[in-house]
Model the fold of this input.
Amino acid sequence: MTRKRRPPIAPEDFRAAGGLLDRRIFLAGGLAAGTLSSSSAGAEPLSVAPWMKTPGSPFTPYGQPSRFEDKVVRVWTNPPNAPGTGAARTPLHVLNGTITPNGLHFERSHSGIPDVDPDAHRLVIHGLVRRPLVFTMEMLARYPMESRIAFIECGGNGGSLYQKDPAQLNCQGLHGLVSCAEWTGVKLSTLLDEAGMEPSAKWMLAEGADASGMSRSVPLVKAMDDALIALYQNGERVRPSNGYPLRLLLPGYEGNMQVKWLRRVKLTEEPTMTKDETSKYTILTPDGKSLQFVFPIEAKSLITQPSPGLTMKGPGLYEISGLAWSGYGKIAQVDVSADGGKTWAPAALQQPVLPMALTRFRMPWRWNGGPAVLQSRATDETGYVQPTRAELIAKRGGKTIYHFNGINSWGVDESGEIKHVYA
Ligand SMILES: Nc1nc2c(c(=O)[nH]1)N[C@H]1C(S)=C(S)[C@@H](COP(=O)(O)O)O[C@H]1N2
Ligand SMILES: [Mo]
Done:
């Protein structure tokens, strides 16, 4: 009896034009590049490598990545060692999964990283409360804690996509001001309940202990809902660059409000109108008016692999993979296009899909070696769909740098090189 063998990629596997495939294609087998007879890696596959012949290195107090991974680093544009305002970006294109390692979490500081002594630092809660409170770090650590996996994205991330011409930067340079971590600490509501809120309190001022005196007004409903006084980041104490010894975590809200090196929470009736929420972090619209207090990050997504710098090596099967997130809740769907948005197919969402956290999506793609334009489009659980760049700019104009969440396009040419393009 003869059985017809199904070809590795059958016509019914194609989901959209441009070679987007059904996700089950990776289960079909026979698609991997390396076979024993065609090993091109140089070494015989089962020869005894040098590192098998002597004992390995001893233990170290704090682990570091392999020396072969020395290009997996943050980058920034400030001159070397210049303190002050600036940002170091996460290398999204060479990471996978959804959690950002602490040493690679992006950093945005308006006046450098203060060297805060946890024994000398205090957190004060005052204003419209019955009992003003002062906390040492030791006192805070005695309260019950919770963990939340949450992204933080700078309101200025992707701001260069408002420009007329596509900036020739890679994924990190264009979009590296977003990261995701498991944050652990004390619920702000626990501390506010203890202080006893006056009924007239509707807002709170959060102030940092750095030289920039970063301060923002936060609606009290958000503070009482899911705000965290974060003491730990991915299991270890919050890094100095991310707010040691404690930061405010406001899941889903723009990064700027998540005040680092937090020293003061003051309950107020009205927003305080600080310099950071009037001169900055407002969205200037085409009619000359500004949108103020645009807090949650709108749904957004991004293909991280392939992306500029990760040149593809010939036609064949590839995995398109990327990240999606929304400050309004969970990601419901991510669609991928390989033809600049003409046709779309839904990507597989990797579990767990958590609210206000980075979500990883994956899509098999058979690249035929021709030009392609790769895009992703996120939909969140509210039904909101990530707009095209043109739709976003029609609404917002080009005078702002904040809250860019338009669809991003990577152009692939015949040589497999990838560039940032507008489609
Ligand atoms: N005290 C203080 N908090 C701050 C800032 C700052 O400069 N000082 N930068 C803000 C901005 S603009 C962003 S985007 C986030 C960045 O958080 P991260 O550096 O932990 O990634 O922190 C916010 N909190
Ligand atoms: Mo920011």
